[in-house]
Amino acid sequence: MNYVDSLLSRGEQIVYVARQHIFVLISNILAELSMIALLVAAGVASHVAFDTSQPVMSDLTASSLILLISITMSLVVLVSGFIDYLRWTTEQYVVTDRRVIQVQGVLNKRVTDSSLEKINDVELRQSIFGRMMNFGTVAILTASGSEGLSVMDRIADPLAFKRAMMDAKHNLERGYGFLEQAYIHSSGAAGDIQRTIEDLADLRDRGILSSDEFEAKKQELLRRI
Questions:
Q1: Which of 61, 99, 180, 195 gives 20 to 30 Å between its CA and that of 186?
Q2: Residues near 52 by Cβ (< 8 Å), separated by ≥ 6?
Q3: Sign of the torsion formed by the C-alpha atoms of 69, 70, 73 and 74
Q4: pLDDT (tens digit, 9 = 90+) per residue, 18-43?
Q5: How many CA atoms lie less than 13 Å away from 173 in the CB half-sphere?
Q6: pTM of the shown model
């Protein structure tokens, strides 16, 4: 069981999983590799520029000291790149049939939940380059106001993420989440199916289901008998 699965409530289903676009990881790693190259170049240049015969600290010459500092800083940058990779693999944006879950952190986890029924507005931001590379930022505002703002920065395929989130919200409002639970608890017995049809009729009478949706679900249940 992965970490996201441990966050799910009983009967809760994952609809869509997204993470930051691979471009974000690649750009971070390229920046860190460029930094390492500059540090190595600085170390080599110092070996040429400074006197290698006169020590400045114990037995270290100026060139050796600068080279040692450059290597140490390069290792630090290399570790930073590895942490960026771990962060990219562990940070997830999950849409379930009840909520949107934002998971951050490698060792220390930070989990932010946004209930689908409380989502008021969704903003999608994509630059021209983001549209070309298929990444963007999705911001959702819940009923909590400005404190309920959740931002999914530079995620891959933001249109699919937004579509999955809005479809899940629509299904929850229409009562489809309830119907799925009814199907789970329906073992195929005539009595259980009859009770489920009665529940469907109640949803129809309340305006949650249309007559066509009711008939389609009813026929699907009757075929189980």
A1: 99
A2: 61, 63, 64
A3: negative
A4: 999 998 888 888 888 888 888 778 77
A5: 11
A6: 0.64
